[in-house]
Amino acid sequence: MTKQIYYLEPYKTETEAFISEVQENTGSMLKNVILDQTVFYPEGGGQPGDRGEIVGKDGIFKVEYTRMIKGEITHQGKTHGVLGNGEKIKAIIDWNFRYKYMRIHSAGHLIHDVLMSLVSSLKPLKGSHSSKAYLEYEGSMDVSLKDKLADLVKEAVGKDLPIITREASYEELVKECQFVPSNLPKDKSLRMIKIGDFKPMPDGGVQVKSTKEIGLVLITDIILQEGKTIIKYRVVGPA
Questions:
Q1: For 168, which of 2, 83, 109, 172 could close a Cys bridge (C-beta 3.0–4.6 Å)?
Q2: Ordered domains of the chain (ranges, CATH)
Q3: Between 95-118 and 146-158, two packed helices, what is the crossing angle to 10 degrees?
């Protein structure tokens, strides 16, 4: 398994590594590169995978997607020049791209935390922390709470609350978190996030260090649909 540097040092933008394998991708012009360690976050938890470059002595691999494929962190892209198995390289992420989605992902967790203080009857179902970010819940809420939700999120951002992420076992998640998805594996290390004094939540993404880094969060819409609540949001402007 590739060492996950993005969890150990989420603000690290590059690292040296060795190529474990370069794979041809049948039916695609993209190749797969697997490293012994990486700063590239693979798509998951609603957060897009990183893009950037893998730079070798005689070639550059332009990473267009990073995905978890068959249990391996897989960098997918196109090679300019030559890269080979066992070669020492430098892996460099597109930091502006990564940081944008770190902020969006953290904003989603903060919205959830604030929302639970207003409407505790909702049960989280899924979410996306991409360019079309949303949170989906089982149950309905009063849509007139939209402005109050936005104001409380803005207030929490301004308080510069710490955002802590760490490894956790399934048993720890069940003990400490209000909601734990039933499909999480029970035999491997998982992760959790905790913002300020809010309750912790399971999380597999890469987050910013404090709410102040999130910046301005807009609640763009609240939709009630077939017994579900969908909250759409955006993060705008600089951190």
A1: 172
A2: 3-93 (2.40.30.130), 99-236 (3.30.980.10)
A3: 120
Global pTM reads: 0.95
pLDDT, tens digit (0-9, with 9 covering 90-100), for 141-200: 999 999 999 999 999 999 999 999 999 999 999 999 999 998 899 988 999 999 999 999
Tokens (6 digits) for 123: 């049960």
Give the C-alpha separation, 109 to 99, whole Å: 16
CA 92 from chain centre, in angstroms, equals: 18
Which pLDDT score, from 0 to 100, does residue 101 have? Answer: 97
Q: Nearest to residue 195, comparing CAs of 148, 160, 146? A: 160
